[in-house]
Amino acid sequence: MSKGIKIIATNKKASFNYFLSDFIEAGIELKGTEIKSLRVNGATIGDSYVVIRNGEAEILNMHIKAYEHGNIFNHDPLRTRKLLLHKHEIRVLEMKMKADGYTVVPTKIYFSHGKAKVEIALGKGKKNYDKRETIKKRDLDRELAKGDY
């Protein structure tokens, strides 16, 4: 990645479970202890997904560990967080979700010039045979890289 970007977490399950397209960078609305915890502990986005409610995009099941040095103002690790997107981006995502059956999944969380960002993508669910093809291709690539062919 380019200068000024520090990757916090990636969602490896997303590319295995979905055909991903239309990647968008979005800001995350975080509380004070959440941003501190992200800098120290990181986050988990393996089971998280994005929903659109009342014209706002929200990310669910994103786990940000509680900040160790926090006090009574510490945050709930699994709370729903608002994504900062433009209205037209939200409308496009909502239309594709309703019409084409896409799911919006986060692919990675990172700091870009000191601000927490999440990369989201439209995902079309893979069938079991597609997942088997992915596993087969990954194993073949691994064997070719080792030279055991």
What does this structure look like?
- By secondary structure, the chain is of the alpha+beta class.
- The chain has one domain (5-146): Beta Barrel (Small Protein B, Chain: A).
- Helices cover 32% and strands 38% of the residues.
- The protein contains four helices and nine strands.
- The strands form two sheets. It has a seven-stranded antiparallel beta sheet with strand order 1-8-9-2-7-5-4. Strands 3-6 form a two-stranded antiparallel sheet.
- A hairpin with a 2-residue loop joins β4 (49-53) and β5.
- The longest helix has 19 residues, at 128-146.
- The chain is globular.
Q: Tell me the helix content.
A: 25-40%
The computed structural class is alpha+beta
Distance between the termini: 32 Å
* Sheet with the most strands, sense and barrel status: 7 strands, antiparallel
The H-and-E topology, N to C, reads as EHEHEEEEEHEEH
The gist of it:
The chain is of the alpha+beta class and 149 residues long. The protein has helices spanning 12-17, 32-40, 87-100, 128-146, and strands at 5-10, 18-28, 43-44, 49-53, 56-60, 63-64, 81-84, 103-112, 115-125.
